[in-house]
Specification:
By secondary structure, this protein is of the alpha/beta class. The protein has four helices and five strands.
Length: 151
C-alpha cells in the first residue's frame, strides 16, 4: 500500500482490475467498511474508462484503490503491468490519488465466500469480482487505519 488515508470522512472506490470485468467496491473512511458496488463488464478499454468516470461522478471519491495482481510469491506478471497502467490512467483522468493494494488470493477468497453463501458457479462471476474489490478495499482500510502502527 502507498499513500495515506486522507480526510476523516471520505468516500473511497476500489477496483479489482480485469481486461474484461472490473469489480468495484465502495467505502467510507469514517466507517472504514467496504462493500461490493458493481461490476464493469466491457471488452473495450474506453468503455471501461467511461464506466469508471460515471462511478467517480456519482460517488465523488477522494481516493481510488486498485488491486495489484502478482504471482503467489509476489513476482510480477503480465496483469501486474496492466493493473498499474489502469491505476495510473484513472488517477490522471480524475486527478485523484491512487493506491495499489496486493490482491493475491482475493478472487479465491471471494469465490469461496460466495460458494459458502450458495452464490457460486457461473452466475457468481460478477459478484466474485465485486467481492474481490471489497476485500481489496477492506485490506486498504485495515492497513491505512492500523492504530498499532507507529506514526
Amino acid at each position: 500500500m502507498t499513500g495515506s488515508a486522507g480526510s476523516k470522512d471520505a468516500t473511497v472506490l476500489a477496483f479489482d482490475f480485469g481486461t474484461r470485468r472490473i469489480g468495484v467496491a465502495v467505502g467510507n473512511t469514517l466507517t472504514r467498511a467496504a462493500r461490493p458496488l458493481t461490476t464493469i463488464d466491457a471488452q473495450a478499454a474506453e468503455a471501461r474508462y467511461d464506466a469508471v468516470a460515471a462511478l467517480v461522478r456519482e460517488w465523488r471519491p477522494e481516493r481510488l484503490i486498485v488491486g495489484l495482481p502478482t504471482h503467489a510469491d509476489g513476482a510480477p506478471h503480465a496483469m501486474t503491468a496492466l493493473a498499474k497502467d489502469f491505476a495510473a490512467a484513472i488517477g490522471k483522468r480524475h486527478v485523484l490519488p491512487v493506491d495499489l493494494v496486493d490482491e493475491r488470493w482475493t478472487s479465491e477468497v471471494a469465490r469461496d465466500e460466495l460458494a459458502a453463501a450458495g452464490r457460486g458457479g457461473r452466475t457468481g462471476r460478477a459478484m466474485r469480482d465485486e467481492k474481490a474489490a471489497q476485500i481489496i478495499l477492506q485490506a486498504w482500510f485495515d492497513e491505512a487505519y492500523d492504530v498499532r502502527r507507529a506514526p
